[in-house]
C-alpha cells in the first residue's frame, strides 16, 4: 500500500449560478422560471413535473390551464435542456435486482448510477473523485469535475423513466462532501419537490467536518452514511489517502451527535479487505467504537477490481465476522457489493467505456 500523499483536499468551487454555459444549476433554473413569469406555485409545479416525471404525461394540461403564457413559451427549451442533463448510455443488470447505469452528461462526461432493490437509487456527485481510496476504481482517475445539483437530480429523473425511485443514496462516484453546495441543493430539491422522504435520502461521506457543520442546518436533513473501513488511524490514512485527517474515534463521535440530533441511525460503511481490515484486532476496535451507538455497520466484501492488489474475503469469513460483531453488541449487516451500495464499487463501467472509446 502506498502512504498518504496529501493533506485535506481543498474544495473545488462549484460553478456559479450565473456562469454560462454550464450544466443546469438549480438556482439558475429557478431564476429562469421566475424570469419567464413563474410565481412560487408555478415554479413548484414545473419542478415537481420534472422530478416526478409528470411533464410528458401532463404537459398539455400544464401548458393549457395553469401557467402564464411567457412561461409556457419558455418551457419547451427548458424541458429539452433538463432532458439533456442525464442520458442513459447503457444498462447492466446484476444479481439480486440491481442494475448499474452508465449515464452521459450534457458535456459527454459519464457517471454511474445504480438501481438498487426496493426502489433505491445510488447516484454520483462528481466525475471522478479526489479522495483516492486505494480500493476504488473511481479514486484512480482523480477529480475531473463537479456535478451540479441539476445533474444529480437528473439521475433520479432518468432512473424514474425505468422504474419507481423511493430512496436515493449518495454513494456513487465522488465524495459528496467535496461538492457540498450542489449535493445539498439536490437533497433539498429531492426532499421537497421530488417526493422522497428525508430519511430516504442518504448523504455519504468519508468524514468531512464541513459536512457535519452544514447538514444539521438544512431544511431537509438526510440520513448519514460514514466510511469507516478501519478503526486504526494510520491504516485509514493509507487506505483513504486524501480524506480529511480525522480519526475513526472522532468520526464516530461526530456521527453519533448527528444521529442523536436527527433520530436516524448512522450507517457505517466497511469494505472488507482480506488480511487488511478483517482481523480480530479490528473487530475489537469496532466493538469499542460502535457498541451502544445509534448505528448500523454495513460490511461489504470488497468488489474485485482488476490490477488492484486487494483480496475479497470468503463469504463464510464475512458471515462469521458479521455474526461475531452482532453477538458482541454491534448491529451489523452483511451486504453484497453486487448491489453496489458500497464505496469503491463504482467507476468500473465508466473506466470500461473510456477504454472502449465510448467516453
Ligand atoms: Fe471517492 Fe468513494 Fe471511491 Fe473513495 S470510495 S475514491 S470517496 S468514490
Number of beta strands: 12
Order of helices and strands: HHHHEEEEEEHEHEHEHHEHEHEH
Number of helices: 12
* N- to C-terminal distance: 30 Å
Strand composition percent: 15-25%
Indicate the radius of gyration in whole angstroms. Answer: 21 Å
Sheet with most strands: 10 strands, mixed
Overall helicity: 25-40%
Low-confidence stretches: 1-21, 338-344
On the 0 to 100 scale, the average pLDDT is 87
Structure write-up:
This protein is of the alpha/beta class. It has 12 helices and 12 strands. The strands form 2 sheets. Strands 1-2-3-4-7-8-9-10-11-12 form a 10-stranded mixed β-sheet. Helix 1 runs antiparallel to helix 4 (69-83). The longest helix is centred in the N-terminal third of the chain and has 15 residues, at 69-83. It is globular and about 70 Å long. The relative contact order is 0.13. The model is unreliable at 1-21 and 338-344 (pLDDT under 50). Iron/sulfur cluster (SF4) is lined by residues 129, 131-133, 136, 138-139, 173-175, 206, 343-344. Residues 1-22 are annotated as: Disordered. Keywords: 4Fe-4S, Cytoplasm, Disulfide bond, Iron, Iron-sulfur, Metal-binding, Methyltransferase, S-adenosyl-L-methionine, Transferase. Residues 115-341 form the Radical SAM core domain.
Amino acid at each position: 500500500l502506498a502512504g498518504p500523499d496529501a493533506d485535506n483536499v481543498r474544495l473545488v468551487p462549484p460553478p456559479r449560478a450565473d456562469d454560462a454555459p454550464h450544466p443546469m444549476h438549480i438556482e439558475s433554473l429557478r431564476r429562469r422560471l421566475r424570469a419567464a413569469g413563474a410565481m412560487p406555485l408555478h415554479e413548484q409545479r414545473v419542478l415537481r413535473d420534472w422530478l416526478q416525471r409528470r411533464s410528458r404525461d401532463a404537459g398539455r394540461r400544464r401548458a393549457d390551464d395553469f401557467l402564464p403564457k411567457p412561461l409556457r413559451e419558455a418551457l419547451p427549451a427548458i424541458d429539452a435542456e433538463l432532458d439533456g442533463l442525464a442520458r442513459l448510455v447503457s444498462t447492466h443488470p446484476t444479481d439480486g435486482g440491481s442494475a448499474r447505469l452508465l449515464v452521459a452528461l450534457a458535456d459527454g462526461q459519464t457517471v454511474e448510477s445504480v438501481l438498487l432493490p426496493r426502489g433505491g437509487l445510488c447516484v454520483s456527485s462528481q466525475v471522478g473523485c479526489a479522495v483516492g481510496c486505494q480500493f476504488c476504481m473511481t479514486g484512480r482517475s482523480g477529480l475531473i469535475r463537479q456535478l451540479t445539483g441539476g445533474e444529480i437530480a437528473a439521475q433520479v429523473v432518468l432512473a424514474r423513466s425505468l422504474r419507481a425511485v423511493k430512496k436515493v443514496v449518495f454513494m456513487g462516484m465522488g465524495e459528496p462532501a467535496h461538492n457540498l453546495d450542489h449535493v445539498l441543493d439536490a437533497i433539498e430539491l429531492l426532499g421537497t419537490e421530488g417526493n422522497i422522504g428525508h430519511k430516504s435520502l442518504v448523504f455519504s461521506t468519508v468524514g468531512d467536518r464541513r459536512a457535519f457543520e452544514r447538514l444539521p442546518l438544512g431544511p431537509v436533513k438526510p440520513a448519514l452514511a460514514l466510511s469507516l473501513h478501519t478503526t486504526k488511524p494510520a491504516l485509514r490514512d493509507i487506505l483513504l489517502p486524501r480524506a480529511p485527517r480525522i480519526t475513526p474515534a472522532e468520526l464516530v463521535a461526530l456521527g453519533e451527535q448527528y444521529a442523536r440530533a436527527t433520530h436516524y441511525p448512522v450507517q457505517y460503511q466497511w469494505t472488507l479487505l482480506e488480511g487488511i481490515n478483517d482481523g480480530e484486532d479490528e473487530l475489537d476496535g469496532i466493538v469499542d467504537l460502535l457498541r451502544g451507538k445509534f448505528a448500523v455497520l454495513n460490511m461489504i466484501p470488497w468488489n474485485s477490481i482488476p490490477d488492484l492488489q486487494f483480496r475479497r474475503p470468503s463469504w463464510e469469513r464475512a458471515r462469521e465476522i458479521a455474526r461475531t460483531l452482532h453477538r458482541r453488541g454491534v448491529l451489523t449487516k452483511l451486504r453484497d457489493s453486487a448491489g453496489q451500495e458500497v464505496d469503491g464499487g463504482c467507476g468500473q463501467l465508466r473506466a470500461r467505456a473510456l477504454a472502449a472509446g465510448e467516453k
